[in-house]
Structures are given as C-alpha cells and as structure tokens.
Amino acid sequence: MDRKLAARVEIDTLHGLLDELDYYRLLQVASDVSADEVGPAFRRESRRLHPDRYSALGDKDLSDKANAIYRLIREAYATLSDPEKRALYDAELRGGQARLSAAADKEAEKQRAAAADPAEAATNPKSEKYWKMGLKDFKEGNFSGAVMNIQFALTYEPGNATFKEYLDRAKQGAEEQKKKNYNPYKLRIV
Amino acid sequence: MSNDQPSDGISVGIDLGTSNSVVAVMRDGEPKVLADDQGHRIQPSVVAFGYGSAAVVGQRARQQLTYAPENTVFSAKRLIGRRYGSEEVERMKRLVAWGITEGPHGDARIRVQGRVFAVPEVSARVLQHMKQLAESATGSKVAGAVITVPAYFNDHQRQATRDAANIAGLKCLRIINEPTAAALAYGFGRETRQHVAVYDLGGGTFDMTVLRMEPGMYEVLSTAGDTFLGGDDFDASIAMWLREAVERESGVELAGNHAALTKLNDAAERAKVALSALDAVDIRVPNLIRGQDGQSVQVHTRLDRHTATNLVMPLIQRTFVVVDDAMAQAGLSTSQIDAVLLVGGMTRFPSVKEAVASYFGKEPVASINPDEVIAVGAAIQANTLTAGFDPDAAVLLDVTPQTLGVGTVGGFVEPIIPRNTAIPTERSKVFHTAHDNQTQVRIKVYQGESRLQQDNELLGHFVLDGLRPAPRGEVRIKVTFAIDADGIVQVAAVDEDSGRVQEITIEASSGLTKEEVKGMRFDELGF
After folding, report:
1. Which of B395, B426, B430 lies closest to A46 in CB terms?
2. I need a labelling partner for B2 at 20 to 30 A (CA). Which of A78, B178, B248, B405 fits?
3. Rounded to an integer, what distance in angstroms lies between the CA atom of residue B156 and that of residue B107?
4. What CATH homologous superfamily does B404-509 map to?
5. Where are the alpha helices (DSSP H) in chain A?
6. DSSP-assigned beta bridge partners for residue B282
7. What is the model's pLDDT at position A125?
8. Of B102, B100, B96, whose CA–CA distance to B68 is shortest?
C-alpha cells in the first residue's frame, strides 16, 4: 500500500478509537510498565504520530485529527511519567475513566507546589496565617520575627517538616544577625 | 529524502536576526545558504528610508547608517512586540537617532521622516528583501518560510513576527526557536544520541537551550533567555569607554550628538570584530566633533583584548545566570552534556568562547558556522513541513519559554501552563461566577515568571459574555489555554452546564489587528 495512504488509514483509525483508548494503550505499553520505559515509549510514538509529519500532505482534516491524537499522547506521557499523577490516574482508570480528571490533575499539581513552594506548606487556616507572616519575615531578613511566627504556626501543626526546617534556618539567621550587629563601642546618643 | 516542493514555489528558512539576516533552502537533500549577486550570504537587518516611499534594505542600507542615522532603522527586532514605555523601549530610545513613539494599542512604533511605522512593517521589509534574494538566487518563486525567533520571545513578539511575514506577503509555515534551529542543523545527517547545549548570543538576544537529540527526534528539555542582551550591548560597552575618553580629553559633552555617538558605536563594533582575531586593535575616528577651540577632534587609540574583556565581563557573567537556570530546569549537570554549540556572531569573541568552554569543561563544536547555522536549521524544518510525507523526517519537540497564567484578585497571577512545558499543549481551568446573576467574567492572561501581575507581560484580556443569570458560583466556565507549535497562545471557553462553546480570541493588547495587518500588506500597497 502507498505510504501516504497507509498514514491516512492509521490516523483515521486511531482518531475513531480515541475516546476508548486509555493512556497505556495510547503509548502502546503494558499497564505495569516501569517508570523509565514511559519516556522511550512516548518518543517512539512521537516519531510515528507527530502532527508535523502529516502537515506536508496539505490535508486539513488529517492534520486536525493528528493534532487531536498527539495532544492525548502528550497528556498520557505527562500523566504516566509523574508518579503522583499516575497513581491517581490508575485509581480513576479502575473506575472506568480513560482520561485523568481535571480534579486529580489539580490535586497532583498542588502536592508538587507544596513541595516546591514553602508558601503552600500550611495545611490548616490557623497555622497558615502565622506561617505566611513568618515566611514574610524570613524573606525580609527579620529573623527574630520569623522565629516567633513560625513557632506559633508549629503550635497548630506540630509535625510540619517545612515549618521545622525554616524555624532552624531562622534561628540560625537570628544568631548571625546578633553577632553582626554586636558593637562593643556602641555610642548612645541621648 | 524527497524534495517535491509545493508547485506554487519553494520553501525557505529565514533567520530574521537583530543585526543580520540569512536565508537558506534545501537543494537535492542538502541545506544551502543563499547569497546576493555580490556574493554576500549575510544581510544587515537594516532598513534605510529614502525620500518618498522608497526604502533600501541590507548591505546598501548599512552604509547609510553613518551619514543618515535619522533615516536608517536598525535592530528593529529589539522593539518588535514591545509595549511603549517598557524598560527595553526606553533603553532603545537612547541608542537610536530615529523616533520611537506610542502606537494606538500602546505598542512602540518607529517614526522616520515624519512617517510612523509599526515595527512589523519594518521587519516585513527585511523579510521581503530576503525573499527577493532567495528568488533571484534560485530562480524560483518563494511560497513560504520557516522564520526563527529567539527562544525566549513571548507571545506578543511571536505574533508580531508572524504579522511581519504576513505584511511581506510571505506564508509563515512555522515560527521556530533559534537555538532549536541550530540543533537541527547540527544534527542533520548525524545519527547519534546526545545531550546538546546551545549557547546563542546574537546581536540583541541571548538564549540557552538544552536538548536531547536522537535519530529521528529533537526534544528540547529546557530553554531560558534574556531578550535584551546581545552583541549590541557589547558594542555599547566599548563605545561608552570611547565616549568617556573623548569627553575627558576634549571637554565636549556628546549627549544628544547622534552622529558622533553613531560613529563611536560603529568604531566599537569594528574593534570588537577585529579583536576576535587580533590581540589589540587601533581605533581611529577622524573628524568626530569640533572641540572647544573650534578644532576638529580625532579619536586615535588602542584597545587590547584584555581591556575589552574587562569592559564586557559583566555582560558575559549575565549570560551564565541564564545558563545555570536552563541547566537546572533540564535537570542535567555539565558533565552530561555531550556537545556544546556556539551560535550567533557574538560567540566569535574569544572571552565568550573561553567562558563557555570552561563552564562546560569541553571545547564547543567547531564545525558549525555561528552566523549561518540558524537559517540552515530553519530550511531543514521548512523542508520537513512541505516536502511530502517522509517516514524518516525528524520530529521536533519544543517547549514554551515562559509561564502562562491568569490574573487573580490582589494583583497575583495563577500559573496555568508552566514554562518549559512541551508544545503543542493545552490546559483547562474552571472559572466560577463571584456574584449573583453575574453575566460577565473578565479574564486577564499573563506571561512571565513573577507571581505579581505587574512584573509579567499582559498578553491581553478577554470577556466571557452572556452567562446565564444564576446564584454566584453556580455558573462554571471551563477555559482551555492552548499553545500551538509556533508558541502562540489560543484560548477557548465552554459553559460546563450548557456545553455552549464560546469562541474567544485574545485581542492583542498591543500589536496589530487583522485589519491593520491587511492594510499594511505590500502587495495591496503595490510594493
């Protein structure tokens, strides 16, 4: 068969099945695929199905279909290559859902944001108030203020590791500041 | 590889640079850089306006720069897609002899001889020149082009570049990133698996891109950049050193004397280029100004490489802040980089080369031509996009350079698509009404890395209108943000309950409307 025709048939068929295919089948991998096999599978499918490969045929319908397929392949890769998203997705897939829900996507993003951004570390509104004040003090270099506020935050959330880490750093900062500001020849103007 | 170009003409790759532009084409399976009838492969991105509507572009325009600086527009790329009043535009104003004014959409525009041009109109003249060059060099009509932009260009700058192509009557097949194009050229015909770092210091911009290259595929892992750091700044540092010496010796202030400052800048650029090969250069500028005694003042001095390096070191250091960022985003250490590519004329400068080699602990790839490699990569991509279905053509996976987000209360931005996300991509967000019976939601879209709106680029705002009246929070609108393969942003909205799709386009808050672009088209104006 003509290569171009074969490509058209492949895209048409895949596009027709798109709603039924889960991420594993899209990337053509087994559902117990290991984390380091997801990337190569994605790259293999990219080489085969990237829409740029079809744009030269000058057929808008075919290009649109290839784009729709490729968007899902990206989504599959983004989900399966991220352990948190993959775990949430596997649960949803067992419930009969072929695509990761926006809610689960957001949940995974939030977990990551908390890990990357200390401002998201507080999990209860009372500790959050003091935590944000403490963090602000810390960033402005007001370490003694930071120590006080983070200690308040810790009374509501004693187990929070991020709070503890920053408390240590703030204490250290306060100590250094004290040393730096110490001046034996201090002159008081009255 | 097949070469069946579309019947209405050939497709070329154009490197639309800040200082220079280059055009290349695929011929018999090999990329080829095209030259004008004088044999020049590199064309200055300079547009010299004469009297009447005539304008000269390229080599001849470059010559006009010294004797008619007020009519000769250079480095228009530094202004493209920029807002009037932005820091970059203010800096540019101090460097040029022509006027920069505010356009009707808050965009920066260029005023020459009492006429005002949108920046894409000026860039369009450069594109048209490259198109004509390609047509006379090949004897074929040019139907379309892949045009390159700095990787760190935002949506406005990309849109404006597309507008320029449109005005020039050139079909823009794709906007691709300059460092990615360089990697395409490097990888062409090289069937290996490598991590490649591209250090791209051009006339006006700096980009750093990290890619994974393997047979049949180029995957950008990260990109970072500074759109206001380039060779022009190196020239300006050296020119400032000359200027200080002249003012000190002659006692004459040069501020506002554009003719003298342009001469010094020119001398600085020539000295910089010469220092790529020599250890020291003589700088001579005859008849620069009239001194206090009425006598003509000459510049005659010597600049050695060591002094020049000290002058530009702060600029080189700024590039490595960007390099560190790109490496961290890619999650790679310097020892994992297999090849380092130097792109852009500024990388010929010895201290730049040395700094890059010592950072990566290996010598950069010597076989590539830093001035031509971007156009070559663009030509390869143009061929992939037009030369029929080729099962072996390499695919290119690029990323979005800046975070896309929406404005929230209190002047903050909520990120929607983080930077270095592979494109094309899309993400959705559900918006709720905040008041009872609210029928309108206004959404502002930003690009940039700050959490504060004021520090990001406002791409535009759109209004979701005609919502059904209901208690607050009950109307849910799903807004999908998509970034296409050109890196250009698109937005679509759906009312989650009614399923009604709302077509929305971000009306550029600066830049040109479709009608304006149409009115500027050269073919309509008879150029």
Report:
1. B395
2. B178
3. 10
4. Substrate Binding Domain Of DNAk; Chain A, domain 1 (2.60.34.10)
5. 3-17, 23-26, 35-49, 52-55, 60-80, 83-94, 102-116, 125-140, 143-156, 161-181
6. B302
7. 78
8. B96
How many angstroms from the chain centroid is the CA of residue B83?
Answer: 15
Q: In terms of Cα–Cα distance, which of B171, B178, B102 is closest to B142?
A: B171
Nearest to B446 by CA among B401, B418, B469, B413: B413
The C-alpha atoms of residue A133 and residue A148 are separated, in whole angstroms, by 10
Which B-chain residues 464-483 have CB contacts (< 8 A) with chain A?
A: none
The CATH architecture to which A3-116 belongs is Orthogonal Bundle (1.10)
Complex ipTM, two decimals? 0.74
CATH 1.20.58 for domain A118-181: yes
Read off the amino acid at residue B340: V
A–B interface: beta-carbon pairs under 8 A: 52
Active-site residue, B486 included? no
For B289, list phi and psi in degrees, rounded to 5: -145, 175
Q: Do the Cβ atoms of B384 and A4 come within 8 Å?
A: no
Catalytically annotated residue among B107, B163, B200, B371: B200
Kindly state whether B425 is in contact with chain A, defined as any CB-CB distance less than 8 angstroms: yes
Per-residue pLDDT of chain B (527 residues; tens, 9 = 90+): 344 444 578 999 999 999 999 999 999 989 999 999 999 999 999 999 986 667 899 998 988 887 888 899 999 999 999 999 888 899 888 888 899 999 988 899 999 988 999 999 999 999 999 999 999 999 999 999 999 999 999 999 999 999 999 999 999 999 999 999 999 999 998 888 999 999 999 888 899 999 999 988 999 999 999 988 999 899 999 999 999 999 998 889 988 888 888 899 999 999 999 998 999 999 999 988 888 888 888 899 999 999 999 999 999 999 999 999 999 999 999 999 999 999 998 999 999 999 999 999 999 998 899 999 999 999 999 998 987 777 778 899 999 999 999 988 788 888 999 999 888 888 888 888 888 888 878 888 999 998 889 889 988 877 777 778 888 888 888 888 888 878 888 888 887 777 777 666 565 555 788 888 888 888 766 66
- Residue to mutate among B217, B218, B389, B416, with most A CBs inside 10 A, is B389
The structural domains of chain A, with segments of one domain joined by +, span 3-116, 118-181
User: Does A5 lie at the interface with B, CB-CB under 8 angstroms?
Assistant: no
Residue A53 contacts B, CB cutoff 8 Å = yes
CB contacts of B5 in chain A (<8 Å) are: none
- C-beta atoms of A47 and B386 within 8 A: no
Domain B404-509 in the same topology as domain B10-229+320-399: no
Architecture of the CATH domain B10-229+320-399: 2-Layer Sandwich (3.30)
Place of tokens 């990357």: A116
| Ramachandran quadrant class, B238 (left: phi over 0; alpha: psi -120 to 50; beta: rest) | alpha
Fold for the domain defined by B231-310: Actin; Chain A, domain 4 (3.90.640)
- Tell me the backbone φ, ψ of residue B224, rounded to 5 degrees: -150, 160
If you measure CA to CA, which chain A residue comes closest to B427?
A102
Whether B506 contacts B489, CB under 8 Å:
yes
Token pair, residue B255, equals 């501020």
